[in-house]
Specification:
Blueprint (H helix, E strand, L loop, with lengths): L1 H27 L1 E12 L16 H11 L4 H9 L8 H8 L2 E3 L2 E3 L35 E2 L6 E3 L2 H6 L14 H10 L6 E7 L6 E9 L17 E3 L7 E9 L2 E13 L7 E13 L6 E10 H9 L2 H8 L3 H11 L2 E3 L6 E14 L1 E3 L7
Parallel strand pairs: 8-15
Antiparallel strand pairs: 1-6, 1-14, 2-3, 4-5, 6-7, 7-9, 9-10, 10-11, 11-12, 12-14, 13-14
Length: 369
């Protein structure tokens, strides 16, 4: 009897010890949280990556497209000469907005971009581009990542539009098109959040990266930068809560198993970030506590087109991307998820540079991360 009781005692003691050890391990896990301050196309421009040249600006594209629908040169020059940096007369604007043709009738080039002939954007043909090998293959249309030197990198979004002047950029020089959109929209859209959890950030091991949509918007400091160390509540809607599992090695965070990422954005930019087969690599900077890296995967290419086409004439003449040209380029280079009826690919591979600054992230139950 006593022996059985003693055995039960030691068994209970052992279970309690395991529970205590497990609790200590859980308590030892550390979480670092951030608010996204920049989210941009991961540009990688360098001399020679566009051997066919940089794509013409809209006024020159107008000439090419108007000529392709049969207008005489003298009429074309009269129309294009009236653009005046976007401050065109209603007649000129109407002509260019409706430069599409269907059965000989004018069509809105932004609503029906296929009615404008595909005059051919120059594409990026360089060797290097940021991103990941999303399909496990190496083909002639793939790149090599300039930082990791991973081969077979899929980034057809960069191939399609990287030779536009307003998409040119590097890791430290942000592309104008995306910079303007993000700068305008992050004041009004809900903030995006990053929380990284690991047992020990100084050692190699497992890591969990959570991407959230916040209930609050970012705020600015006196210099106009996103304010650090602000508190954000996680939107309880499970659609905007993403958990990615990966590894830390030598301080670098790597997410190599494909995940899905869904974040609600802004109607003027990405209405929603819907990314499949997503991978990521991130690095927490010891000097200032910020986080920076690359997030890549497949996104619906028509969502990308919406970035350019949503403001139509103003976007085209002031930001410098020919919208029907972008439509044809994105459609041509889309490389995933073919439509079962048409066979046309519905998604395009891409990579985004993501930067975050320290923040406090709190669940609605007031549990801080």
């Amino acid at each position: 009897m006593f022996g059985r009781n003693l055995s039960s005692f030691w068994a209970a003691t052992a279970l309690a010890a395991c529970a205590l050890t497990s609790g200590r391990a859980a308590l030892a896990a550390e979480t670092k949280s951030f608010v996204v301050s920049w989210f941009l196309q991961a540009a990688n421009s360098y001399d020679g990556d566009c051997p066919d040249g940089i794509n013409p600006l809209p006024e020159d594209m107008f000439r090419i497209e108007l000529r392709s629908i049969g207008l005489p040169d003298n009429q074309i020059e009269e129309i294009v000469g009236g653009v005046n940096g976007g401050d065109a007369t209603p007649e000129v604007e109407d002509t260019l907005v409706n430069r599409g043709r269907h059965n000989g009738k004018p069509m809105n080039a932004y609503t029906y971009p296929e009615t404008v002939p595909d005059v051919g954007f120059h594409e990026v043909k360089g060797k290097y581009a940021y991103g990941f090998n999303l399909d496990g293959k190496e083909t002639a249309t793939n790149y090599e990542d300039p930082d990791t030197h991973e081969k077979g990198v899929d980034n057809q979004y960069w191939r399609a539009l990287g030779c536009n002047i307003n998409h040119r950029g590097t890791r430290t020089e942000r592309p104008a098109e995306w910079s303007l959109h993000w700068e305008l929209n992050r004041n009004s859209m809900p903030a995006w959040l990053i929380s990284v959890t690991a047992d020990d950030f100084t050692k190699d091991g497992d890591v969990t990266v959570n991407l959230y949509k916040a209930l609050e918007r970012v705020s600015r400091d006196a210099n106009g930068y996103v304010r650090a160390d602000s508190t954000f509540r996680i939107d309880p809607d499970p659609r905007w809560q993403n958990t990615l599992h990966g590894k830390i090695k030598d301080g670098a965070i790597s997410i190599t198993q494909p995940h899905e990422v869904h974040l609600s954005g802004d109607p003027y930019m990405l209405t929603d970030l819907d990314m499949t087969k997503a991978q990521a690599r991130l690095k927490i900077n010891a000097d200032d506590g910020t986080i920076e890296g690359v997030l890549g995967g497949y996104i619906p290419w028509r969502r990308v087109l919406f970035i350019y086409g949503s403001s139509g004439w103003n976007s085209e003449t002031m930001l410098g991307t020919d919208i029907p040209g972008a439509y044809h380029a994105l459609k041509r280079h889309a490389d995933a998820y073919p439509d079962p009826k048409t066979g046309m690919n519905t998604a395009i591979s891409t990579a985004f540079r993501i930067v975050g600054i320290p923040a406090y992230v709190v669940r609605m139950d007031a549990k801080a991360e």
